[in-house]
Amino acid sequence: MAQKSANISQSQPRNIIIMVGDGMGPAYTSAYRYYKNNPETEEVEQTVFDRLLVGMASTYPAKESGYVTDSAASATALSTGVKSYNGAISVDVNKRKLTTLLEKAKSAGLATGVAVSSQVNHATPAAFLSHNESRKNYVEIAQSYLNTDADVILGGGQRYFSPELISQFTAKGYQHITEFEQLDSVTTPKVLGLFADVQLPWVIDNPDAKHLSTLTKKALSLLNQNANGFVLLVEGSLIDWAGHSNDIATAMAELDEFAHTIEVVEQFVRQHKDTLMVVTADHNTGGLSVGANDEYAWNPEVLHRVKASPEAIAAQAIASEEWQKIVTDLLGFEPNIQQFSQLTNARMQGNKTLAIALRKIIDAYSNTGWTTLGHTGDDVQVFATGPGAKLFSGQQDNTDIANKIFSLLPKNQ
After folding, report:
1. What are the residue numbers of the active site?
2. Which of 91, 170, 288, 292 has the fewest CB within 10 Å, making it most exposed?
């Protein structure tokens, strides 16, 4: 009998952390392995993704949206176990509300939270916290968070939370903070932390900030105060945004911070053996290829030389007469005469056009390929550790991930 109860405790987690690398298809984690590899050694070193890989998942949405999902439909699948149309925030194809993972956890007496690098009311966190017929209804979604009773809401999105809405949150007992330095002053739930107008700053422009891992550490410490346990969503949101821009240098920096955040959670799991971590992507973005142009090569060392996001490089180049020197310094290599000619033309058309031209030059030097500015229908990887991790082995659908997590929640008393 004692043996049986021991088995239950080993397979039934008290805490569940689901982590989503938005847009992080398999090519991203392969690229990241080579990006992090030490060229001085004979072998290619493993990353946290290699170490924790357990399975794969299909990502297609409800039939009316075809085979290629958006973040809203995929997050709805991961949060509710039900497929819906692209754009749906935890409603079914008939726009009826679906019960979310965080709602089920809350009703079972667990603490709940989200920590993301996009705005907190973006598609993925919204599908775990709320319901809406359209992901684009950002203000409505922000307003709806008042009724979620979530203990921790951390990320960007200040522009969607009016002073009136903030005062409603504080009236409900939420601490409202807007600076990372204020995190230390928060010692108990509940907290609404909005640290940027929309997205958090790009990692490549703030390499020492460790924003997502810092938010995740704080979320873990606050949620762990609940004796019944907790469910936390963590999203590396901006991997996807970089993918949409076909921006390999920015994507690898975002992936690096997401990997660091996984390691932070992995350490928490080691110290709290009753904690399950499940990591996946919601879909693949950009059709990234590690190698391109009929060349059997990929040059990640080029990406390590890039000192700022193409957006930031473009802004500085437009603001200065000595823009060619700035571009060379921040890229870490000197474009050739033809490329400088292209950059000259792009510079006259403004920041956006110049940033695109810079990304294409980085692609050329690193030999990186892309097929789209949108999503693709590829399967994505699933990573897990902790009690219940074996459930996520092998091939599954994204709805299966949700249903397996549901099976591990405590039954309502």
Report:
1. 71
2. 170
